[in-house]
Amino acid sequence: MKKFTVILFGFITTILLAGCVTTQTTPSSQQVPERWNFHFDSRQWHIGYQAGDQQGALREYVLPGQTVDNWQELVTSRYSAVRVKPRAMFEYFKSQISRDCPSLQISVIEESSDSILFEWKHGGCQGYPAQHEIQRIVLTPTGSLVLHYVAKTPQLTPEVRDTWISIIKSATVRSDK
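The chain above was modelled as a monomer; its predicted structure follows.
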């Protein structure tokens, strides 16, 4: 049974499971609300997993024929009731993911006082396959949000990269959450 995990600061990707805290999962019959307003690319994405409580929420989206345990592309939306400045969260993430990963490349695409949009990629490290991810962290009045797209590839095509940067950059925080 998959458990909902809240990582330090609520958002370190699943390859950084050290220091995680396990919480109760939301019953499968209960919908976890999406806290972002965003659209997907032209393909048919669906919820592969969702869990949450008052302190955090996770929604993972996959393509047909893929699961959160066996995916080639994944979109994840995370919420944490802990308010952490996006730059601080990014720096922590960077310090953790760069350990023992000589092929890692990480760069900030855009940054403001309450948001940071960045990407990272590697050719495979720490026992994980090559990945390229676009990620955005936003500080909200009630906590912190992350939205990211990741593909198991060492390099996104320019078209895919541009599409997901645009999608994630234009995402807004739902005002009702």
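Residues 158-170 form the longest helix (13 residues).
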